[in-house]
Amino acid sequence: MMNKPRRPPGQGSPAPPQRPQAHPAAPAAGRPAVPAVSARDLTVVRGSRTVLDGLTFDVAPATVTGLLGPSGSGKSTLIRAIVGTQAKVTGTLDVLGGPAGSAPLRSRLGYVTQAPSVYADLSARQNLDYFAAVLGIPRRDRDRAVAQALDDVDLASHADDLAGNLSGGQRSRVSLAVALLGAPELLVLDEPTVGLDPVLRRDLWDLFHRLAAERGTTLLISSHVMDEADRCEHLLLVREGTLLASDSPHALRTRTGSDTIEDAFLNLVESTGSPSRERHRGGTP
Ligand SMILES: Nc1ncnc2c1ncn2[C@@H]1O[C@H](COP(=O)(O)OP(=O)(O)OP(=O)(O)O)[C@@H](O)[C@H]1O
Question: What topology does CATH give the domain 37-111+183-272?
């Protein structure tokens, strides 16, 4: 039995997911699909600023949705609201059919933060073993679950390297593997491809699509890199705390007459006008 690690990871532990199993990718016949995430007039205040302002959107189950916007546009805040760690959230925010942040959701969600949440003084495999034990995966299933998660993120060859000796991108993949351990129904990833080389980025996007298609996982993936947009089935474009668009990449390009999502983004900014940079609650218009 492995000893409990001496100190906690810097960014807190990934949300404990449940034991591996496939999720129904499609609703039962005749029943409408319940959105994996449903937001109505979602507003978040941080300090004296309204950093998310009246967002309304749905995320369809078993899809790969990109949350795209420039740095500071509110992506992480939205993710924190969805996983239930953000204070001062108003409006309606339902996740997997229940209110965001409610206890039963904890085991159904996987959350991978920007900063890897792994123990530097344990190997990749030991990290996964530890989190598998925390999740309650039975000992007889643990080796297989850990090997599968390492394989999913293409880290089998580094399984016995200390996490502290891995590159930043490899550590991020250990974090992702931890989130995958319990086969979460909704996997929320904050900028998972930052700093990765193009081959690894492609492999990760392939994995994301496999998870959606084969395991019925819903993935919400934030990025400030617009050229990743075409890898998503659906996009949420945010800017300065507002939702510019919720649409497929193709539909966005078509309706804005743009060749790229970056141009579509710019066209939408021009056509909607720029919201004020500083919004204060209760301030004068
Ligand atoms: N504690 C806080 N108090 C006040 N404003 C905050 C606080 N934390 C973040 N903000 C502001 O909220 C806005 C949204 O931040 P957020 O981190 O959600 O953006 P982001 O799109 O994820 O950015 P990045 O891509 O750089 O991570 C930013 O303008 C940020 O300055």
Answer: Rossmann fold (3.40.50)
